[in-house]
Amino acid sequence: MDDLKIGVIAAGGRGRLAKHAHKPGEGSRITAICDIDTEKLAQLKEDYGSDVRATTDYREMLEADLDAIFVCSPDFLHEEHALAALDKGVPVYLEKPMAISVESCDRILRKAREHGDRLFVGHNMRYMNIIRKMKELIDHDEIGEVKAVWCRHFISYGGDAYFRDWHADRRYSTGLLLQKGAHDIDLIHWFAGAYTKRVSAFGRLSVYDQVPRLKPGENTDTRWDKAHWPPRDLQGFHPVVDVEDQNVVNLELANGVLASYLQCHFTPDACRNYTIIGTKGRLENIGDRPDCPIFIWNRRTDTYNMVGDKVFRGEKVGNTGHGGADGLIVDNFVQFARGGDAVGSSMHDARMAVAAGCMATESLRAGGAPRDVPALPV
């Protein structure tokens, strides 16, 4: 079996996950990379080998002989890079979120249709063992028919990760309800078995509008550091900060399931907590690490039972990033590039997560006015 020849756009940031596809002699290898950071590019060329084609221009990279392409650039460049990569006529891995507007997503979908639907979107949380275990328990009728899904997302590192660069500027991210929330909205859809049709949201910039910002031309130390606390004592934020640091969203899904998503970027701890309520019980996880507990309550007690009636855990996996999910999703993309199926989010799932996030952001900036979510294009 010949190795697939793979190119990576924006190889030095999130594109580093493509290293899991670099297995010369085992079916795939990275042969071309692009990044505007020349220092990262030089280091990656050493990592991948002197014969890898390295450039700062993605157009030049796309001229190489390639069998598959990773697009891992910042969100606001996804449409441009995805359309160009799809025109190459090879399978494309597009990092989530698909894009920062519904219109951009639909243009990408149309281009993918032109080229045989060989688009794979990187919603890696569907590959996390604990998330798969929760979905398995739901599908095995442990809590009956799903009627409600709630998600609380505590983000201790929000200031470091999202307010020091382009994420903080709504022109480039739309908002963190989309950029960060696309993961969770996609999982709400997956757990409930339907897409969102209507949303109402509230959000606010509550804390991080009071943190000193960089002056034009200044650089910032973007390392995540537990010593960066409390939130108002942080330094060196992006010159433009106009995205909300907390959001509350209510979602009505097409099958009647009601859902909610709460997100806060200035909490002291980090945790994703899902509660799924069905006609025969309730399921809840504490954290999203592979071996975190999943509790199920399916007996009436009229009091709060902290340990649940049943307890499950995901399985520990290798450390390939995001609880082992990065390695798994890249392996699936390589299989997809050889003609196999994607086992995670489809490109339609990814579009609907963006659509719900965009409409929720529009709602919160309109004082909570409900918004209908545009259906998939015919």
Structure commentary:
Residues 131-284 form the GFO/IDH/MocA-like oxidoreductase domain. Residues 5-123 form the Gfo/Idh/MocA-like oxidoreductase N-terminal domain. It comes from Natronomicrosphaera hydrolytica. Pfam families: GFO_IDH_MocA (PF01408), GFO_IDH_MocA_C3 (PF22725). This is Gfo/Idh/MocA family protein. This protein has helices at residues 38-48, 58-61, 78-86, 102-114, 129-139, 158-162, 170-173, 176-179, 181-192, 325-337, 347-364, and strands at residues 4-9, 28-34, 53-55, 68-71, 92-95, 119-122, 146-154, 196-204, 246-253, 258-264, 271-278, 282-285, 293-297, 310-313, 371-372. The two termini are 38 Å apart. The chain is globular and about 65 Å long. It has 2 domains: 4-124 and 333-337, 3-Layer(aba) Sandwich (Rossmann fold); 126-323 and 347-372, Dihydrodipicolinate Reductase, domain 2 (2-Layer Sandwich), CATH 3.30.360. The chain has 378 residues and is an alpha/beta fold. The longest helix is centred in the C-terminal third of the chain and has 18 residues, at 347-364. The mean pLDDT is 94. β4, α3 (78-86) and β5 form a beta-alpha-beta unit. It has a 9-stranded mixed β-sheet, covered by helices on one side. A 6-stranded parallel β-sheet has the order 3-2-1-4-5-6, with helices on both faces.
